[in-house]
Design goal:
three-stranded antiparallel beta sheet; two-stranded antiparallel sheet; 5 strands; 57% helix
Amino acid sequence: MNDERPNLITDLEAHAEGRKPLVIRLLQWKVVIPVMILLMLLVAPLLYRSYLLNGIPAIGDPFDVEAFGTVNLPDVENAKIDYEAAMAAMVPLPAIAGVDVAAQLDDALTNGWEHAGPTIRTWLDDNRPAMEQWKLGTEKPDFLYVQPKELSINTLLPLIQELRTFARLAQLETSRLLSEGKPAEAWVWARATYRCSRHLGRYGVAIERLVGMALHAMSIDSMMMKIAEHPTTTESLLQEMLKEIQEQYAKTPPTSTMMKCEYLMFKNTIHDPKMMREISNQFNQPAMKVQYEYSRVLGIEPQMSQMIAQQFFANILEQIDLPMHQRQRRTGHLDLFEHDPGKSYRVDRLTPDEIERHVMKSYVARYLLPALSQADTACLREACRQRAFEFCLAARIFQLRTGAYPSDANELVSAGILADVPADPYSPTGEKLRYRHAGDEVVAWSVGENGIDDGGGTLDAEDYELRYADLGIILGREKDGSVEAKKP
């Protein structure tokens, strides 16, 4: 009888357990843990998505994409047609075993025609038909390489890069003609290079615009400066040069055009599934790859990147075309614009700090967006070179006309050579370019990125940090690096 009692108790307990409500039975640990894991797996993606997207207002495209994305340009007006024909006819720099031909070319470009050996001279002669075709293209009114709406990070720019070679050939020809005392004929090739520089970036992204800036610098520093300093150059030729570069530079698109093209490139890239998969290959750390792929598979990307880009570009486009002294302070790693302190932010717009915080959450935005502030800096530096050279050309005209350089910048306006003293693109207060002359030397300069006037003393300091250097042009002095940098 005693032996049967434990079994009876066990049976009663089991019967009571079976009569418990279903909820109580489900709460037993063997059931709860798997259910909780399942719920976490279901909820985690939603929480992660909310974490990444929360606080990013959807504002739509920051400009009229449809109106901007298509450019109607007939072939007869598009320099691309002639540039492509010239590229097809171009003879490449020869490869000779045991000879560094590229170094020979650099020597000739740096030190003048007298340093051009037989190989380089032959290469120039072989390319004369291609150069003439290229020059025809520079006479065209416009240039369109790729429709803005078709741009992506995968857009190839072989023609854009090859135009550098034509600029080098033009520089060689300019040097040859100057060595023969023919500045007017040399100007033809300097002008072609300058016009080509204004074509690039007309409807393109930052890399295309940067190549145009490189050609702009080459045409001024390596060609027109030498023409202006040549002893046989006439006042009428200098006047023609000044008029030409003023008219052509006025055709340079605003910086906002480049930024809009960058936005379209970004937008097209993130909506291309293949490109989004390829971006994963840019991440070196396995954990970053896993997180990126997780957000992509969940559909968080590209939505998050697009919303962030809309805020990013909306911030930039509001002020990027304003003169420096009218812009609000730029801030943070992304160099975004602060808002007017007298106004509050719109409810659908993020502050620069908020934009930057969200950019750092997105691997795509973090990978593609930060470098764009450097493109704006490059545009400002180009404007400094342009205006300083206009100033120096005007001073040289004045010198040929009167026998001496002007002692004051306003004399150029009084003489009718300039309509006004050029503004300093970097001046935080809207001041004019600085100017001085001593003997046969003329210097025109901007205060540079730090906004501090160093008296033009840093113009020759190639190893000096750009943010501390004045920017400008020195006319009438051999660039031998003799000027010492002066830190503020």
